[in-house]
Design goal:
Layout lengths: L2 H67 L17 E2 L18 E3 L14 E8 L12 E9 L34 E7 L8 H10 L6
Parallel strand pairs: 1-3
Antiparallel strand pairs: 2-3, 3-4, 4-5
């Protein structure tokens, strides 16, 4: 083998070595970058999941409120398990209502179209609580203040204990809440429900409830 051939073979060997080293360095750089951005990617996915869950829970709350306003849920007496009328709250603030201890009188809503499942994280139970200072026997004839809390269906799975004073706890948020807290409601809101039965107009019943019988005059 001539000296020229030996030099060519040595050059090719060196080129091959540099290629392997460069590949290893590139792999290390990519690995470091992936490790660095993995938490950000996971946080982004979790935030999108929670944002979608909050959106569905808001829709569930509005569906429940609309059902009460239209009289679709009309009786103050609890119906079949899971489909009860809102419970009465005797406290000054309807938002002080205690968290439910079970799902027997809550309103189930299927939000994913696959049928309601108590183990689903996309189906919900809705808790309703009403308050009227006059304590009418049938609040549908006078109207009432309503508090709605929406819980994930799997919040009532075995081993999960709901926080009993949600109003005193830090509320869930879309940013920073990750995949959410099953012991807390996803959404909580209050509203006014006008009378759905009786002869008094909704406006008159609303004024009488908030300002007294002469409040509308």
């Amino acid at each position: 083998m001539t000296k020229r051939q030996q030099q060519q073979n040595l050059s090719q060997s060196r080129d091959g070595g540099y290629t392997i080293i460069e590949s290893l360095v590139a792999m290390i750089v990519v690995s470091v970058l992936m490790i660095a951005i993995a938490p950000v990617m996971a946080f982004s996915v979790a935030t999108r999941v929670q944002a979608r869950r909050t959106e569905l829970a808001t829709q569930a709350a509005r569906t429940y409120i609309d059902a009460l306003r239209t009289g679709a849920i009309a009786s103050p007496t609890p119906g079949p398990a899971g489909k009860g009328f809102p419970i009465q709250v005797s406290k000054t603030n309807v938002a002080d209502a205690d968290a439910p201890t079970n799902s027997s009188n809550l309103y189930p809503l299927d939000m994913d179209g696959g049928g309601f499942s108590p183990t689903s994280s996309t189906d919900f139970y809705v808790q309703g609580a009403w308050r009227n200072p006059s304590n009418p026997p049938d609040p549908t004839k006078t109207g009432y203040e309503l508090m709605v809390r929406v819980y994930r269906a799997d919040s009532f799975a075995s081993g999960v204990t709901l926080k009993q004073n949600p109003k005193d706890e830090k509320k869930q948020s879309v940013v920073g809440s990750g995949l959410g807290d099953r012991t807390m409601p996803v959404v909580e809101m209050t509203t006014q429900i006008p009378r759905t039965t009786g002869e008094t107009s909704s406006y008159e019943s609303f004024c009488a409830r908030l300002k007294g019988a002469k409040g509308c005059q």
